[in-house]
Amino acid sequence: xxxxxxxxxxxxxxxxxVSVVEGTILRWLVAVGEAxxxxxxxxxxxxxxxxxxxxxxxxxxxxxxxxxxxSTVSVGAVLARVSSAGQxxxxxxxxAARGDSATCVAESSSPAPPARSASPSxxxxxxxxxxxxxxxxxxxxxxxxxxxxxxxxxxxxxxxxAQGNGGERPLHSESPYRPEPPAEAxxxxxxxxxxxxxxxxxxxxLETAATCxxxxxVDMSRVEAARRRAKASALLGVTALPIVAHCxxxxxxxxxxxxxxxxxxxxxxxxxxxxxxxxxxxEDGLIVPVIRDAQQLSVEQLGLAIRDLARRARxxxxxxDEVRGGTFTITNPGQFGSLMATPVINQPQVAILDLEAxxxxxxxxxxxxxxxxxxIRPQTILGLSWDHRALDGAQAAQFLGALRRRLExxxxxx
Amino acid sequence: MAAADAAPELLVVRLxxxxxxxxxxxxxxxxxRRIAGELPDVLLLVEHPPVxxxxxxxQDGDLPFEPEWYAEQGIDVVPVRRGGQLTYHGPGQLVGYPxxxxxxxxxxxxxxxxxxxxxxxxxxxxxxxxxxxGIEYTGVWVDERKIASIGVHVSHNVTTHGFAVNVDNxxxxxxxxxACGLHGVRMTSLxxxxxxxxxxxxxxxxxxxxxxxxxxxxxxxxxxVVARFAEAFRRTPVEAEPTTLGVPLPDAARSGQPVGRS
Lengths: 414, 262
Hints:
The structure holds two protein chains of two kinds. Chain A is an alpha+beta fold. Chain A has helices at about 90, 100-110, 115-120, 125-135, 155-165, 195-210, 220-235, 240-255, 300-315, 395-410; strands at about 10, 20-30, 35, 40-45, 50-55, 60-65, 70-75, 80-85, 210-220, 260-265, 265-270, 275, 280, 285, 290, 330, 350-355, 360-365, 370-385. In chain A, a hairpin with a 3-residue loop joins strand 4 and strand 5 (about 50-55). In chain A, helix 4 packs parallel to helix 5, helix 8 packs across helix 9 (about 300-315) and helix 8 (about 240-255) packs across helix 10. Chain B is built from seven helices and ten strands. In chain B, the strands form two sheets. In chain B, strands 7-8-9-6-2-1-10 form a seven-stranded mixed beta sheet. Chain B has a three-stranded mixed beta sheet with strand order 4-3-5, with no helix packed on it. The longest helix of chain B has 18 residues, at about 105-120. Chain B is globular, with a radius of gyration of 18 Å. Chains A and B meet through strand 2, strand 4, strand 5 and helix 6 of A and helix 3 and strand 8 of B.
């Protein structure tokens, strides 16, 4: 072993604070083979709220970049290695082609370098080691594409992917259960931004609100009769939605506790009803445009407003102000034939009304003499999801009762 | 200068309304002089015209409406070299860029949060920071609502970037920045918390125009932030003209209305 050995110093991801456990390399400021002074910034790391440069721990030459730009590593991970100054061979570093410089350093100045860098491919970053351990990959058998044959994260991930489901371990070693192979996907890909946004919004609602759902059956005979008349005169849309919306708005005036928002401990009731109406965009998702001051609109105006918003929502023509500021929301899966669905509250509102399919059913009604008879009536089930942090079941049921009274005595006024 | 044991100076420079890009160049120039030891620690106070800044992790869907629509509103979109999400700055928001030599970046963040909490407390608003919730909760919060965002850049132990407190700004641009008004964090402002309509909010039929009368509430909070910030970092605040910085100034910074004390 020659007396003159090059000493290399590891550049590690620093611990910025207890809450910072990893960082992303934003960019390298120095190329491999370039001379660096002690404390000269080598790279910038990003930890979401903090971008900071990493100073060189010693003067010398940047011998190796271990972590590439854009990669995220844990605190303590080796980011790079700096060979100390004074090595004649290293001075030639900048001349060497970048990709070969790590090898160049090892050959020209360190015939017997520290064990770690003797064979670059035998050292593995913590991230690579973790992935390998999790998936039972033998790193010795993985072909590295990094500098000097180093195994990079994508190399080990490629091996994991190639293993497919054969490498999947059972959920419990003693369990006879083996996960079923996943069905052949007809199509796959990343979720759209809207799907992810809807997902986050719904999860947040379920995690935030104490969601309860109350159901009530309603005889829709009079509403259906009004719809038939209206269809004949072409005044109304073909759905019961505008009538239900109109009656719900009136019922909210009686039960204002439901026309409200709750944010943290801040509970606010509103006089005006800014009515959100869920509009399906098919596979693309769902959007809830808001009809402002809906309490001022007649049934016909509500019907027109709903149709207009739905049309523009599906055409992607809504203005930002039209999808915010709602105080109560109606969703209408019944148009697709559903009987019962538990709606998720549209945060920060405290209640959402669910209109289901109207179906003819045999029910018991009083006849003209006050005797019970079985009659065929168009029935529906109204569902109301409400936030138990803001109100109690009695208020929810009273609201639904008020809504039912209005629907069952609907006289076709607008 | 005479008293050797006096707290070190903090140059406070109120620049008025400055375009985001110009403020960035200004910070970098001041940082050069701070690194070289030609300037003491500096606190720049500005307001920005409406602008979305997008970090590397911002996605196209973060601005869900047509680019023309944001342009009509007069909101600029600036890509910035940092990680993190999209943010918004606009009139009525107090933006502070401390350019200071620091030793510990986390201690620095916490002290900055503390100074903003104290300044808001002076205005009668109880706010808090969330050091135990993780680095992504850096900033100042009122309950679960975020009132001030913080992001810093450290180079040669000298900071740039800083804080943005929503004081009296029109908050709608925050709602326009994620699909269908859905978002993980609800933003709030001092005016919102008081149940006031932002003085900088234009009438509904007008776009978010660039020219806006300065809010006295921003000036008032700026004074409180200066006092509390200096206190938190044990500095003596010294109000200074922009020309004191000895760096090229954007036009607006020379002619613009200063934030606060004029």
